[in-house]
Structure formats: C-alpha cells, structure tokens
Amino acid sequence: QVRLVEAGGGLVQPGGSLRLSCAASGSIFGFNSMGWYRQVVGKERELVASISSVGTIKYSDSVKERFTISRDNAKNTVYLQMDSLQPEDMAVYYCNLGQLGSRYWGQGTQVTVSS
Fold first, then answer.
1. Contacts 24+ apart (CB under 8 A), 62-71
2. CA-wise closest residue to 35 among 92, 111, 103, 87
3. Is 14 helix (H, G, I), strand (E, B) or coil?
C-alpha cells in the first residue's frame, strides 16, 4: 500500500506564492510518476503538473511559467512551487502517485487565493 501526505496549502493574496509538498511512503517502486491535480467544487479534477522518477515533466497550460514541480527521489517527495497565484488557482490540490498501473491519492490540501 502507498500513503501520500500533503502539506503547504493555505491562504495567500493574489500575486503571492505557496509551496506544496507530498511525501510518499509504503511500497514505492523505482519507476513512478508523481504529480499534482486540483479540483474546484462542481468541476472535474485536473492535472496541474507531473514529474516522473527520471525527470520527465508536464505542466498544464494554465500554470506554465508560474508553477514549478520538483522531486527528491531519495525522500519519495514531490514539491510544487506556486508563484504569481491568482484567484483562478484556488482549489483543493491533490498529490498523486502512479506506478505499475495503479494510482494513489493524498487527502488534498486547500489553496485559497484572496485579498
């Protein structure tokens, strides 16, 4: 089994920054993909960014140039540095790990962007 524990959400003013982290534990295999999704009430969960264990990165168009995803393979931890946050970034952010055909989710962390 895999457990994902997220941290770093909160309230920030427009233009501000937050850094999310997600630590994975349990049966983690060497090749996997970790990432961040977000969801607003009434809408589908959408990919924000992902990074594989060999460093392949994907971003959604809406966050390119503002968000940076990174990972520490030794700690099985993925990070999301979010800069220039806007009200439309407000959502619950979920950590995801994919390996061997299975996907695992964290409990979610709320990001609120408001003045």
1. 62/88, 63/89, 69/35, 69/36, 71/34
2. 103
3. coil
